[in-house]
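Exercise 3.2. Students should predict the tertiary structure of the chain below and write it as structure tokens, then compare their answer with the key that follows.

Predict this chain's 3D structure.
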Amino acid sequence: MKENQTWDKKSLRAVIGNSKSFDEIAKDCVAFANKEGGHLAIGIEDDDELPPPTQRVDDSLKEKVVKRINELTINVAIVPKIVKEKNGGEYLDLEILRSAASIASTTKGGYFIRDNDKSKPIAPDDLLRAITDKPSFSWETKVSLKYKLGQCNKEKLANLLSKIRSSDRVSTFVKQMYDDEILEYYSLVGEDGYLTNLGVLWLGTQPQRARLLYSPTVQFIRYDASGNKVFKQVWDDYTLNPDELLESIWQSIPDWRESNEVSDGLWRKEIPAYDEKVVREVLCNSIAHRPYTTRGDVFINIYPDRMEVVNPGRLPLGVTPNNILRTTVKRNKELSRLFYALHIMEGEGSGYDLMYETQLSLGKSIPIVKEGEDSVSVTIARKIVSKEASRIYDYMQYAYPEIIEHQKAVIAFGLILQEEIISSEALSNRLQLPESDRLRSYVDILCTKNVVLTRGRGKGTRYYVNPKIFSNSKANIQTTLKTIEPYRLKELILQDLKYHPKSLISEMSVRLPDIPHTELQKKVRKMTSDGELTYEGGRKYRRYSLL
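Answer key:
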């Protein structure tokens, strides 16, 4: 198992002998506690998957390690366990529980958070944010209003239980529970029989929900091309639970059922202005992941060319617009779990993947996430960037079904298709991947099936769609020089300098706008070193000519 956001491994030497490093282990424990919790496997080397077959872990070591970590950390809870692997070797597994109500730290005043497979320090500017954000993670399971289950809205209760028992995302074990057991399982009712905040939000009457601080309210505003408000609708009477609220918003706004027409041979094909899956997912995120300890409405702003959803509060600590595709933090864990069970939203960490996949398959740009001082906005473009993309995806549906079922490959293919040719570094950045080797999980199947071709090696690798895909799909792709073969680029440069001798590379770039400047520069300098071109002047203002 690879190290990730919730799992790490350490050598047994980290806790025994002269090389022990309890400070590093304490740092990792604090980082796990401040994120989602996790497991620290002590006794597995960095390059190994299993502990040595002859390795044994004594119970006294378990007690010693836990005692030492407790001495070095604050607000860290650990559950130790000795695990015996299939090869016979043993290691010490430390389960670090999430610190739900307080910030964990080392006794030396160090604050850390887990970021993918590393434990990183929390910057001073983010520390206050982390402290103020903590209450929002436990809001849903608290009992703020003393309402018994018998005081809830009976119709909403019956409807919810019916949906849970008919959902294919709910296990048979849960479906066979008594009603009150199901409600406790989803944290709608506490052990004392009172409705939790989540229970009031979902099952409460209108007056009960109105008394609940920061129940979600939504404003929809339509703007014209000049930025003037032309229509407004508000959901602020607290009569609807989250499921009903989302359905009402979807059904009430006609803009989301508009479409754009594109040619498809002799026919016209309609592409939705805003795909239902994308709209529902971004709306679900606005309800499921907002901090319920922060006042503010959710704004849905519709402009002629885009939709913008603005949420109160900032992203959870550790999540940024640049890693939101690969980083998950459960702010309202129980609400999200209920949304998933009822098919209201996708599973954990897959919502933005779905939006990327859908937008790219329609030939549109990916969602843009921006974080302000006290809000987060997600912008979904209406405009179609590539009108032929949907035709190509239709062809891929029957020609390469194994790729269409591979969500990561579909996303990578869409980005490569829009860029025409893209470097491995640029593609990794678009996919928010921290290391280039992680790109393989996105492009390997594309390259194996020759759907995507490569040029160059290592970090200089560039990806482009196989031209056969365009011809087989009958897509009317505009001809471009971006994917020109190296030997053809060489002939193009020779032809250009034949008519325009003594040219700067910048001047050549203007005449060959489809060729990336860096690629043109690299090729010209290679031809010069090979003795195919001559030049005059210094390196910065060097003019090239034919021999």
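Discussion points: The longest helix spans residues 59-72. The mean pLDDT is 86.
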